[in-house]
């Protein structure tokens, strides 16, 4: 089945050991950032309290793991895997939101993954990165405006939150992740991945 899909789409579906290791490293590192972002949530959201719902601009800080993992690994499931690992790590380190972080991580990861699936795992450019961040933003907007304290807001602030979350996903998850990949690739750190070879103009049969 995998070989049939691969021949039809031109995608290498099988994960290498290095893919698993690097995706895990991305997830763990992002999980620590998620935890730190959570610690900064209260002062940052307070600073944005002049317009209820504007705190959605902070949502992207929890969305970049999926986009980054997808852009680097370029295999089906990479975005979801990296986002879930990040959620588990932030939960293990200690977060005020407890086990719900894992639920959010799964949904956010699915959002990020969906963008790569829509282009059949064949394009990894900036527009696709932004698209992945946007869909991750849609995912967190849905979760937050439906199941979190944001759900108690009036329609106006909930709408502001949702739009802000999508914008944050596009910028903090989509654009920033794309820039991180290009920065890492320029150093040679990603030479074992197509993402790195594209930037450096090198070739490999891996």
Describe the structure using short key phrases.
single chain, 206 residues, mainly alpha, Arp2/3 complex 21 kDa subunit ARPC3, 8 helices, 71% helix, transmembrane, ABC_thiamin-permease_prd, Putative HMP/thiamine permease protein YkoE
Provide the fold topology:
Blueprint (H helix, E strand, L loop, with lengths): L1 H8 L7 H31 L16 H10 L4 H16 L6 H19 L7 H22 L7 H33 L6 H7 L6
Helix pairs in contact: 2-3, 2-4, 3-4, 3-5, 3-6, 3-7, 4-5, 5-6, 6-7, 7-8
Keywords: Membrane, Transmembrane, Transmembrane helix
Protein name: Putative HMP/thiamine permease protein YkoE
Organism: Microbacterium ginsengisoli
Task: Walk me through the structure.
It is globular, with a radius of gyration of 17 Å. It has one domain: Arp2/3 complex 21 kDa subunit ARPC3, CATH 1.10.1760. The protein has helices at about 1-10, 15-45, 65-75, 80-95, 100-120, 125-145, 155-185, 195-200. It contains eight helices and no strands.
Helices and strands: which structural class? mainly alpha
Number of strands: 0
Low-confidence stretches: 1-9
Instruction: Could you tell me the CATH topology label.
Output: Arp2/3 complex 21 kDa subunit ARPC3
In round numbers, the mean pLDDT is 92
Q: What Rg, in angstroms, do the CA atoms define?
A: 17 Å
How far apart lie the N and C ends? 21 Å
Q: Helicity, in percent?
A: over 70%
Order of helical and strand elements: HHHHHHHH
Tally of helical segments: 8
CATH class: Mainly Alpha
Strand content: under 5%
- How is the biggest beta sheet arranged? none
Identify the CATH architecture.
Orthogonal Bundle
**Large-scale geometry:** globular
What is the domain tally? 1
Keywords: Membrane, Transmembrane, Transmembrane helix
Pfam families: ABC_cobalt
Protein name: Putative HMP/thiamine permease protein YkoE
Transmembrane segments: 17-37, 49-71, 78-95, 101-121, 128-153, 159-181
């Amino acid at each position: 089945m995998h070989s049939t899909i691969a021949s039809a789409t031109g995608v290498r579906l099988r994960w290498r050991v290095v893919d698993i290791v690097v995706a895990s490293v991305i997830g763990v590192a992002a999980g620590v950032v998620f935890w730190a972002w959570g610690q900064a949530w209260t002062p940052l959201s307070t600073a944005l309290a002049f317009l209820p719902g504007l705190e959605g601009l902070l949502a992207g800080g929890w969305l970049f793991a999926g986009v980054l993992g997808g852009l680097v690994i370029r295999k089906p499931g990479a975005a979801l895997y990296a986002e879930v690992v990040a959620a588990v790590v932030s939960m293990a380190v200690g977060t005020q939101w407890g086990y719900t972080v894992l639920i959010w991580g799964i949904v956010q990861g699915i959002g990020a993954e969906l963008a790569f699936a829509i282009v059949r795992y064949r394009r990894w450019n900036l527009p696709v990165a932004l698209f992945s961040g946007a869909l991750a933003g849609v995912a967190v907007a849905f979760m937050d405006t439906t199941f979190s304290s944001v759900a108690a807001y009036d329609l106006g602030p909930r709408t502001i939150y949702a739009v802000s979350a999508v914008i944050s996903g596009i910028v903090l998850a989509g654009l920033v992740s794309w820039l991180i990949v290009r920065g890492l690739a320029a150093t040679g750190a990603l030479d074992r991945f197509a993402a790195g070879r594209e930037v450096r103009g090198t070739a490999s049969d891996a």
